Amino acid sequence: MTNKRKFSFVVVSLFAAFTSFSVFAESALSSVSANLVNAAGESVEAEAVENAPIVLVYYSAHWCPPCRKFTPKLVDFYNKNGGGEAFEIVFASSDRSAEDMFHYMEDAHMPWLAIDYDKINETGIKSHGGPYIPSLVMFNEAGEVVAQSYDEANDDYKGPEYVLKKLKKELE
């Protein structure tokens, strides 16, 4: 294969990967919004998430000490910066059971919805979180990832604070 053909193949492959990723992100958010529960475990309508200009998916677990340390900061940020209107958060639990997830949501006073524990693997959203928790992934209205705690391409865990800084800039 000539260099010109190799370059064309790479460009086409990258374009295909990028466009399918965007479609995947959008469909992942769609499947998330169809599987939401509140802290009481009740299925809820997803209007808040579907109409939000920015959606963050929060990957966390009660058994994780860094998560328990970060969650109160995220709750505070949500409450002070227009959470529920300017942006929405959805909890993607890595807890060991649905009961643990609901206890964590209640104990941490999480004001946002969660992906139904029993359906989280069906949504495909876990693939965006990376291998570390706590983690945040920020999606725009089009369902595209605009910031995330883990940069898979460089195997770099930036942490959820990185995404909060990006969100703060978006909100200004």
What features would you highlight for this structure?
alpha/beta, two-stranded antiparallel sheet, 8 strands, 172 residues, globular, 6 helices, Glutaredoxin, six-stranded mixed sheet
Question: What would a concise description of this structure say?
Answer:
This protein is an alpha/beta fold. Helices cover 45% and strands 17% of the residues. The chain has helices at 3-33, 47-51, 65-80, 98-107, 120-123, 160-171; strands spanning 36-37, 55-60, 88-93, 113-115, 135-139, 145-148, 150-151, 156-157.
Protein architecture, described:
The chain has 172 residues and is α/β, with parallel strands linked by helices. It has a single domain, classed as Glutaredoxin (3-Layer(aba) Sandwich). The protein has helices spanning 3-33, 47-51, 65-80, 98-107, 120-123, 160-171, and strands spanning 36-37, 55-60, 88-93, 113-115, 135-139, 145-148, 150-151, 156-157. The chain has a six-stranded mixed β-sheet with strand order 1-4-3-2-5-6, sandwiched between helices. A two-stranded antiparallel sheet has the order 7-8. The longest helix is centred in the first third of the chain and has 31 residues, at 3-33.
